[in-house]
Structure formats: C-alpha cells, structure tokens
Amino acid sequence: MQDSVGKFVEISIAVVPGAGACTVVSKEIAFDDHSWTVHCYPRGAPGEPGAGGYLSIHLVNHTNVRNAKVLFQAIVLCRATDMAGAGVAPPRDNYHASSVFEYPAQGSRRFPWPRVVGVRDLHDRHAVSGYATVVCGLAVLRHNPIPAPPSTYAADLAGLLEARKKFGEPDASFAVGGRTFDVVRSVLAARSSVLKAELDSAAGDMPDASTATPAAPAAMPTIRPEHGFSAATFCALLLYVYCDRLPRGAEVGCAVTTELVGELLAAAEWYALGRLKLLCARRLWDGLCVANVSRTLRYAVKCRCPELRSACIDFLTVGHNLKEAFPTEDFGWLMKNSPEVYEEIKRRFVAKNGGGRSLVAGGGDDNAVVCTSSSGQSSLSG
Q1: In 10 A of CB 354, how many CB atoms?
Q2: 301, 334 contact by CB (below 8 A)
Q3: What does the DSSP 8-state code read for residue 88?
Q4: Eight-state DSSP code of residue 44
Q5: Closest to 238 in 3D by CA, of 183, 292, 197, 287
Q6: What is the reported pLDDT for 82?
Q7: Which of 180-183's residues contact partners 24+ apart within 8 Å by CB, and which partners?
Q8: pLDDT of residue 85
Q9: Pathway involvement (predicted)?
C-alpha cells in the first residue's frame, strides 16, 4: 500500500548579470520524519559540468529513512512580458524540471540537478527586480510492505444486531494493571475466541445467576488475566474490540508511543486478533528509524509477526542502518536470543550490497558485524 507526504518551498535568487560565481541559496524542507535541504547554485556548483553558465539545484537528505520513491519538482517562475505590472507569466510559461528517484541512494545522500536553466535566460526571462523565484516541491511516496486485511468487524458481530445498535449494560469486568474495565460479554466473545474462553472460565466460577433477585442481583464475574499487560494496553485492546481502530492521542490514558504499540502487538498475539497485529505492525513501520529498528524487530520476533520482521530486516540492509543499529541493547538481544534472525540479516545484507562491500560497526575488530571479501564470502566476529 502506498501513500505520500510532501511540501513546497519558495526560494529567491539574486540575479546579477555578468557576475562571477554567486553564493549558494539554501532552504530546509522538513515534514513528518523527513528532513532535506535544497541548495540553489545560481551559476552551478563548483566542479560540475556547465558550472558558471547554468542554475543548478542540489537536494540533500539528512534522515535515515526506509526505502521510498521521491518526486522532486523545481519551477522557475517566468517574468510577465508586461513589466509595468511587475508580475509573473502564466503557469504555462514557467520552466519546469522534475524527477522521480529512489532513496536512500547507494553511498550518497546528495541528488544534483545541473543545468536547470541558463544564466542568461534566468536574467532575461525570469528575474523581477533583480531576483528570480524558484518553487521547489518534494513528495515522498511511501510504500508500506505490511498489508492490512479488510475489517472483520461486521462479520464478527453477525447475528448480534442489538449489540451493534447498543452494546447494552456491562455483564462482566476485567481487572488489569490496577484498573477495572466493565465489558459486554457477547461483544468480546464475538471478537476473540481467547476473550470468550477467559469469560467462560470466569463465568463458570460464579454462583448460578438463576437464583438472583431484584434485591440481590447476581454479581458480575471478574476476570484477572495472566498476561500482565498494562492498563493502557488493555484499554487500547478494548478500543479495537469495540471500535475497530487503534488509539489516538491520549484516549487510553497516555500517549501512543512505540512501546505502547509494541505491547499492543503482544496483546493482539495473546488474544489471537490477527488484524490488530497487522495494524500495530503498520503503525510501528510508519515510525521506524535507526534508533528503534532493533526494538521493533524484537517485538516482531517475540510476537511472531513475519511481515514486520521481514520489513525490519530489509530496513537494516539499507545504507549504514545496520552499522548504526548494531551497538544497541535490543540488537544484542536479537543476536543472543534469535541467531536465525541475525543470520538472515547478514544474508540479505550481502545479497543487497554485493560481495565487494564491507560493513563494520565501530572502530575495532571486536565490533565487526558483516565482512565481505571480493569473492563474496562473509564472516562474523564480535
């Protein structure tokens, strides 16, 4: 599945006819977890082809990111022929340059566009009061490799028409993390076979409800699960059960952090809620970075989520991500407790980066992660 995020910035460039090299004009483009800088060289970057005669634009990425496609567009606004109005020409007369590329690129974070427009044209057709305006747009087309199956909410509640209209009065409760959650048994039982089993077990220990009277109503069964999840996590689980979505803001009593989503992934595994597992995996993927990839991969391994596991391993094989993630405590846990995952990381790294590349985390031999010889053989130390 693919979505996109992006932003436009406007850059004014001083145009001085007959002048030598002009100072580079830079502007930041930041949105979500992306950070870029656009550098405009009015007479070309030093050493590049055509330097001195053409405007060139360089795009620099500052973020460790997942594989994605980037759409970059530069529009040099053309001056109107009627200078009395000191305006700009119709959009069709503007100079457009665009490109779609993959990033991060192997060995580089800088993406140059030389010879965007000639210096003479920049002065004669684009400058207004000595300045030319360049509008730069950047859009990141993100592909999420973890599928989200269609909602099973309606099917889960098939035959429970009254429950869909109104859940009714609570008839059971869960004691989790020092809090008590009153629930409707029929709704929970319809959504999860594990919840149904916990409810049935607790109901079997209660007195016969047929002996209840208005003066002495039957007590609601209280379930005390053995999983040990936090109250916020169980609240998020119930939100999914009743509303079929993940929490937002602080509606479960705290912010929706990576740790909370990771624990909710474990809760989804415990209660056999497959769709909730994938929704959590997608949320974790959307927030993935070098700082948390090892922990996220640890969640995927412990909660048996192969989709998230594979996506994290692919992320680690990009650029220097493995080198930077290697020293973390969570990566150490993976090496000790999941050697098969570590072996798979090495195999994919060698397959993606080729047999001639070496990757070492740190400065000494004891910190070597993956070493590849020119023959393509790999070895491990540390």
Answers
A1: 12
A2: yes
A3: B
A4: -
A5: 183
A6: 56
A7: 180/222, 181/234, 181/235, 181/238, 182/220, 183/238
A8: 46
A9: Protein modification; protein ubiquitination
In degrees rounded to 5, what are phi and psi of residue 142? -95, 130
Share of the chain above pLDDT 70, in %: 74
Which pLDDT tens digit goes with each residue over 32-88?
767 889 999 888 888 887 677 888 899 888 876 666 788 888 888 888 765 444 555
- Measure CA 6 to chain center: 14
Would residue 360 be called left, alpha or beta, if left means φ above 0 and alpha means ψ between -120 and 50 degrees?
Answer: beta
Task: Give the three-state DSSP class for 78.
Answer: coil
In the structure encoding, which two tokens stand for residue 117, read together? 């427009």
Running DSSP on this structure, what letter comes out for residue 338? Answer: -
pLDDT at 269: 97
Asked if 313 and 91 touch (Cβ cutoff 8 Å), the reply is no
Q: What angle do CA 355, 356, 361 make, to 5 degrees?
A: 95
pTM, two decimal places: 0.63
104 prior amide bond cis, ω within 30: yes
Euclidean distance between CA atoms 260 and 179, whole angstroms: 17
Helices (H), the chain: 119-121, 153-156, 161-165, 185-191, 193-204, 231-243, 258-270, 274-286, 293-302, 306-316, 321-325, 329-337, 339-353
Give the per-residue pLDDT at 189: 93
Whether the Cβ atoms of residue 12 and residue 25 lie closer than 8 Å to each other: yes
Token pair of 376 as six digits = 């393509």
Q: How far apart are CA 156 and CA 239, in angstroms?
A: 15
The model's pLDDT over 220-234, given as tens digits with 9 standing for 90+, comes to: 889 999 999 999 999
Q: CB count, 10 Å around CB of 39? A: 17
Tokens of 233: 């996590």
54-61 and 110-118 beta bridge pairing: antiparallel
Mean pLDDT calculated for residue range 362-368: 42
Residue 369 near residue 335 (C-beta atoms within 8 A): no
